Amino acid sequence: MRRTRAVGMVLAVLATSSCAGWGGSVGGGGPDSINVLMVNNPQMVDLQRLTADNFTRETGITVNFTVLPENDVRDKISQEFSSQAGQYDVATLSNFEIPIYARSGWIAPMDEFIAADPGFDQEDILAPMVTSLSGDDGQVYGQPFYGESSFLMYRRDVLEQAGLAMPANPTWQEVADIAARVDGVQPGMAGICLRGQPGWGQVFAPLTTVVNTFGGTWFTEDWQAQVDSPEFTEAVQFYVDLVREHGETGAPQAGFTECLNNLIQGNVAMWYDATSAAGSLEAADSPVRGMIGYAPAPVVETDSAGWLYAWSWGIQAASERKDAAWQFVSWASGKEYEQLVGEQVGWSSVPAGKRASTYENPQYLAEAGAFAEQTRAAIESADPRNPGVQARPAIGIQFVGIPEFPDLGTQVSQQISSAIAGQVSVADALDRGQQLADDVAERYRSRESGS
């Protein structure tokens, strides 16, 4: 998850009702208008700018946007959708929230709309995205606007200088060996950058994928906490040792942005993180454009290890304008919209990572050819229901798809960041994490036993 994604959905917030101080405005919501609550990411801002002259002109439906920073929009969406006030018809949700909201009955299933709209071409949506945006009942509850997985990015010239070659499918031990050998090959250059910043969507985005491939898991299928298990411990110890020995300066506070800047500025030779970073690395003004290689997420026990994330559209169950809401969702997540962005904004701004056809579009490939196939392969190999070596109690790769995880993951991440800083041992950090995880697990065991 990218740097702006490190915020949680706290259950206490869901119960609040005050909306004082929120930005944006909502229109009257007549039959020919809808209200959309949306995060202020750059590609969403492009969408807002393009809507009136394209979607509204074609359909006659006016879209009233409320656009907020991520921390604010997540809180406002949780308030609005949990109360089912019906004020907003559509909102931007991630694949973390959508299965939870579907389970709660807060968002509407989309299957009937999909069936009546063959032009949307649901079969073109990459399969892992469909899985991650479906409910327990198998119905689709969200459509992706853009998506990402994770892969390893590395300086090809630096590895060549050290007489090394990146394996086609590297293991974490091979990556650690390469990091040791390229550390200091160029003055001031560390071997690798790995997130160490606290947050369930910061350090635990990459770290949970490492845990998965080392054979660990947060919880067993029957809700037994596993944070201090041998596999979880081995994965975290490996990660902490690697970043302490061959990682970036200031690792305990390094997140997506810091690692991106480190790779661009030549301060590190490798970086494991989001596939969405490649667009910045290959931008026209990037000093490392054309120098970066892209390899699959490193593995140990699993065949693949990349994460899965998507900003997506959900329709509020209480909306009285679901037909118009679907028309907007269909347009915003459709092939034609991608073409529109490519032609009017630029192909590097296309909200990719969701459709197979995107990776067959020669205009897009001309801009993103250095990383397009690797990105598609990473997303298609992601399995949100089976990301490890054992069955899980909830969907998710780099997160556990339960409302309690943002708070749990953030608290444990603070311990991990302290371990990276050398302030506590990994064992002590995970002992505390196990206590926190067991408190969550006990609630689910109690619910399932009916006690």
From TrEMBL:
<dbReference type="Pfam" id="PF01547">
    <property type="entry name" value="SBP_bac_1"/>
</dbReference>
<feature type="signal peptide">
    <location>
        <begin position="1"/>
        <end position="20"/>
    </location>
</feature>
<protein>
    <submittedName>
        <fullName>Sugar ABC transporter substrate-binding protein</fullName>
    </submittedName>
</protein>
<dbReference type="InterPro" id="IPR050490">
    <property type="entry name" value="Bact_solute-bd_prot1"/>
</dbReference>
<keyword id="KW-0732">Signal</keyword>
<dbReference type="InterPro" id="IPR006059">
    <property type="entry name" value="SBP"/>
</dbReference>
